[in-house]
Structures are given as structure tokens and as C-alpha cells.
Design goal:
There is one protein chain. With 398 residues, this protein is of the alpha/beta class. The chain folds into 2 domains: 145 residues, Aspartate Aminotransferase, domain 1; 239 residues, 3-Layer(aba) Sandwich (Aspartate Aminotransferase, domain 2). A 7-stranded mixed β-sheet has the order 2-8-7-6-5-3-4, sandwiched between helices. It has a 3-stranded antiparallel β-sheet with strand order 9-12-11. α4 packs parallel to α11, α5 crosses α10 and α12 runs parallel beside α14.
Length: 398
């Protein structure tokens, strides 16, 4: 008899966290590693948010249990923020505050998916999505869009993948890992297709404020109001406010689904840390000036890293218009001999790059098909120049 359940044993380690941990361990050992693996801003959380948390620690009520669905003030702040940023009108009983966006993703699938249900998963996808689908007993059906489509799936592709077992679609724009952003017309078309076919949409909006070149990220139920009853929105403060370690996310959805997810959370983890919630309230009710300042730095780095990657023979890097990732195709490098080694997959290439020039990137296998690398440009300009420069030197040696 196995010591670990088959259900849990089937879960793969988070590839992005694994790459980041390996890079940090090598750096701690004195190696000059440059890591492009972490999906988190490199800025500190803005001072006004930290100060709100410090003040919250002195309030005894924050030392106690609070409602599993979230502090009433936090849920109301999410209601107001959703109206401000998305023009989507909701009520507090449509909101569940979670321990980061990751818990919200897990609970969304756990709430609506039954064993055997299929979930359409546009690929490249964030590495956690298929694991959550599997834990819920569902089956991920990958729908792949390559660099020629700017990694954006079409309604025609989704329709071709739909079966009588299709229960839900995972939709993420701006995208992790590609940084691609669907246009308003594409969002509306996909939403109308989902509504017509009675398919739930789980919409991950965590990167909503990280947009460039005039791109917009409209919320799907705003463009397709009829979808509101079969749509769950995932969001959080991690990426927008440089608060990855505070662990505050949320779900927005129809009342019955949110009530069911709240029942699950009441047994799973109870309330999110009250101090973190107080910090998040300060973030959501404050202005967006700190967010815009970080966005300017990300935009500069985006242009820098895309230009440098496209100088490497065999790399093709589309220019993303959202998030803080680039996702170059490296298929032109695979099969070539580099320092006596011939990588045939992007996983092998990523290992070679880490071992030979001490630069960490996440291979495409973590997000779908091989042939790609994900680089996070949530790091300094200097590290971008040095890190991509090392890779170029490695791959252009005589």
C-alpha cells in the first residue's frame, strides 16, 4: 500500500518555484546566478501598505478569528475596486477572500468541477492550473496557440476542443507565462461562445494593471453580461502591489458558487491573516500612483529584454503587452551542439544554460509544449543585460 495517496502523489512540484529555489540556493552558495524564474515584482510593498499592516498588529480584534469569507471591510473594498477598475458591479456576498490567488484557483475548480468534467486550458498556461483541475477530478484539455498567434487561442480552436463533457474554460489575460493580452473583441467573442455553450469561465485577472502599448484587459462578464452567472473571477494584490508574500487573493462569482467555496475554505484554512487583509484594504482603497511607477519600470525592462533576446540566433521573442514575462521560442537552438551537449528539448536547454552560464529560466514544458523558455523581467535592468548577454555569448560561441 502506498504511503502517499495517488491523488497527491500525482501532483507535480511547481516548476516556477523549483527554478527560483534552485537559483536562490546557488546564489546563497556564492555562485553568480541570475534568476529569471520568479513571477514576482522585485519592488518592496509600498510604504503606506506596510504602515497599515503595522498599525493592524496592535488592534486586538485582528488577533482573533474573523469570518472565513473575509473581513467585511475587505470584501467591500473588493466591491469598490472592481467597480473602479473593471466597471463590474458586484455585491459583497459575491466575494470570497483567499490565501493568495493560488487558493482561489484551487477552490474555483473544486467548487464547480466533478470527476470526469473537462476543462479547456489555453496553452501556454500557468503551471498550477492543470494540477488544480486534476485535484478536482477533472481533465485538462489543452488548446495550444504558438508564437505565430501571439499565444492567443481562437474561438474556432476552443470549439474544436469542446465535447459534451466540457464544463469550464480557464481564461487568463494578461497571460502568465506569455504576457499576451486578448483584445476586447477577442474577449467578447470567447465570452459569447462560452455563454452559448453553457460553459463556465474561470477568469484569472491577477495581471490586470500590468499593461503596455495601449493594451486593455476588459473583464469578460462586463462585455458579456449574461455570463455573470457562470463566471468566476480570480484576482489578488500580489502582482499589482508587490505583495506576493502577504497571501491575499479573492474569488468573485455567483452567490451560490461563492457560498459553496466559502464552506470549503471554512474547513480548509478559515480566514486569511487579518493583518494581511488590513494591508490589502489599504492597497485597494489607496491611489494607483505606486502601481503606475512600477509599471513604468516594467515597461522599460520589457523593451530591453525583448530586444536582447531577439538578437540571439534561434530565438524568436514576440513583444508582450502585459504582465512581466517574455516567452521566446527557442526551437531554432534545439538540436545544435553547445559545449559538447546537444539539447533536444527546452528543458534540456534550460539546464544547460543554468549549468554553463548560471542563468535560470523556466522551460516551456512547465507551461505546455517544449520549445520555449519563460523569462520574468521583474528584475533589474543590470541583471537583464548581464543575464541575456551570458546566454547570447554561450549560444554564439564558435
Amino acid at each position: 500500500m502506498s504511503r502517499v495517496s495517488a491523488r497527491i502523489a500525482a501532483i507535480a512540484e511547481s516548476a516556477t518555484l523549483a527554478v527560483d529555489a534552485k537559483a536562490k540556493a546557488l546564489k546563497a552558495a556564492g555562485r553568480p546566478v541570475i534568476g529569471f524564474g520568479a513571477g514576482e515584482p522585485d519592488f518592496p510593498t509600498p510604504d503606506y501598505i506596510v504602515e497599515a499592516a503595522a498599525a493592524a498588529t496592535k488592534v486586538v480584534a485582528n488577533h482573533r478569528y474573523t469570518p472565513a469569507a473575509g473581513l467585511p471591510e475587505m470584501r467591500e473594498a473588493i466591491v469598490a475596486k472592481t467597480k473602479r477598475d473593471s466597471n463590474y458591479v458586484i455585491t459583497a456576498d459575491q466575494v470570497l477572500v483567499t490565501n493568495g490567488g493560488k487558493q482561489a484557483v484551487y477552490q474555483a475548480f473544486a467548487t464547480i468541477i466533478d470527476p470526469g468534467d473537462e476543462v479547456l486550458l489555453p496553452s501556454p498556461y500557468w503551471t498550477t492550473y492543470p494540477e488544480c483541475v486534476q485535484l478536482a477530478g477533472g481533465k485538462s484539455v489543452e488548446v495550444f496557440a504558438d508564437e505565430s498567434q501571439n499565444y492567443l487561442v481562437t474561438v474556432e480552436q476552443l470549439e474544436a476542443a469542446r465535447t459534451p463533457k466540457t464544463k469550464a474554460l480557464l481564461f487568463c489575460s494578461p497571460s502568465n507565462p506569455t504576457g499576451s493580452v486578448y483584445s476586447a473583441e477577442q474577449v467578447k467573442a470567447i465570452g459569447e461562445w462560452a455563454l452559448k455553450n453553457n460553459i463556465w469561465v474561470i477568469a484569472d485577472e491577477i495581471y490586470e494593471h500590468l499593461l503596455y502599448d495601449g493594451a486593455t484587459a476588459p473583464s469578460m462578464p462586463v462585455l458579456v453580461p449574461g455570463l455573470a452567472d457562470t463566471c468566476i473571477i480570480i484576482n489578488g494584490v500580489a502582482k499589482t502591489y508587490a505583495m506576493t508574500g502577504w497571501r491575499v487573493g479573492w474569488m468573485i462569482g455567483p452567490k451560490d458558487a461563492i457560498k459553496a467555496a466559502t464552506n470549503l475554505q471554512s474547513h480548509l484554512s478559515s480566514n486569511v491573516s487579518n493583518v494581511s487583509q488590513r494591508a490589502a484594504i489599504a492597497a485597494l482603497t489607496g491611489d494607483l500612483s505606486a502601481v503606475h511607477k512600477m509599471g513604468e519600470a516594467f515597461d522599460r525592462r520589457r523593451k530591453l529584454i525583448v530586444g536582447l533576446l531577439n538578437e540571439i540566433p534561434g530565438f524568436i521573442c514576440p513583444t508582450p503587452t502585459g504582465a512581466f514575462y517574455v516567452y521566446p521560442s527557442v526551437k531554432g537552438v534545439l538540436g545544435k551542439t553547445i559545449r559538447g551537449k546537444t539539447p533536444k528539448t527546452s528543458a534540456e536547454l534550460a539546464t544547460l544554460i543554468l549549468e554553463e552560464v548560471e542563468v535560470a529560466a523556466v522551460p516551456g514544458e512547465a507551461f505546455g509544449p517544449s520549445g520555449y523558455l519563460r523569462f520574468s523581467y521583474a528584475t533589474s535592468d543590470e541583471d537583464i543585460v548581464e543575464g541575456i548577454g551570458r546566454i547570447k555569448k554561450l549560444l554564439t560561441e564558435g
